[in-house]
Amino acid sequence: MTNEELAVAIKQGGADDLKPALWDRVKHLMFKLAGQYYESYEKRFTACGAELEDFQQECYPAFIKALEAYSPEKGYAFTSYLEYHIRNAGAELLGIRNADRENNKPLDNCTSLDKPLDTGDSKELCLADIIPDSNSQEGFEQALQTIADEHTREVLHKALDRLDKPLRDVIVLYYFEDMTQEQIAKREGVSGECIRQRKAKALRKLRCMAELRILREEQNIESRLHFDSRTNTRAYFKAQQRISEIIKRGSYLSYGQRQAIIYDCEIEQLAEDNAEYQAMTRFEQLCAEYNVWEK
């Protein structure tokens, strides 16, 4: 049977068992179309936190929609319907909506504040520089005030070195020397508003830097774990490496990636705990066998 004959049989009812057969025929074409569409708009997908795998998961629902829409009377090949619905699925992931249709899916409508902007005069300017995000900025300020380990300090100092001196000075004086904005303004001979703007701009630039995004993701994942991951080095450093690889590629950690890293850390920690427990149990057995405690 041709693709078109299979589609007609399925639409006529009572032949749902043919769906897997038709899907097997067309899925590779759909994955190819999804890959081409993703490649064309990769930066936009990345900014939305959508990966190629996310798009590929939309291929089967697009296949079902194409099947429902297929009309043999029009004389078009069934595969021509696939391309249309694949493009629609991609558009929905990117947040492109038809005017007559409301779409409230968070992933469809999100844009990362860390998304770099092509301004021609600043490679470090990101969307956060023009759209204020008070919650994110407050969280970043809190992180600056609670630096507790050498790794965090080292990363932060390297990031500060990349700021222009006026911006760096404001951050250092405000967060590390406990000066108020008014005191900094008096010292620098500028207005308090000028210092406020410098501080806000410095924080936005810091939040756009890859090394600090990596650090934030590490801390975010660590806070979700049920153990102190920094004391369990193998699980922690594996997570750290995966986060670093993703972000240094210019990507953003998707929800699925974050959950996978957390899950892997917990599984590895359970394995380590189990191995330690077995070792201690065996040690106690040997001690009992040789009457170590009695000696």
Overall radius of gyration: 27 Å
Helix content: 55-70%
Report the sheet-strand fraction. under 5%
Query: Could you state the order of secondary-structure elements as H and E?
Result: HHHHHHHHHHHHHHH
Distance between the termini: 83 Å
Which spans of ≥5 residues are poorly predicted at pLDDT below 50? 97-139, 226-231
Helices and strands: which structural class? mainly alpha
Total DSSP helices: 15
> Overall 3D geometry?
flat
Taking all residues together, what is the mean pLDDT?
70
Number of domains: 3
How would a textbook summarize the main sheet?
A: none
Protein architecture, described:
The protein has 295 residues and is mainly alpha-helical. The protein has 3 domains: 3-109; 113-208, Arc Repressor Mutant, subunit A; 227-295. The chain has 15 helices and no strands. It has helices at residues 3-11, 19-40, 42-47, 52-57, 59-69, 78-94, 106-109, 134-145, 150-161, 165-176, 181-188, 192-208, 210-224, 233-248, 255-289. The radius of gyration is 27 Å and the shape is flat. Residues 97-139 and 226-231 have low confidence and may be disordered.
Index terms:
295 residues; flat; mainly alpha; Arc Repressor Mutant, subunit A
Outline the secondary-structure elements.
Layout: H1 3-11, H2 19-40, H3 42-47, H4 52-57, H5 59-69, H6 78-94, H7 106-109, H8 134-145, H9 150-161, H10 165-176, H11 181-188, H12 192-208, H13 210-224, H14 233-248, H15 255-289
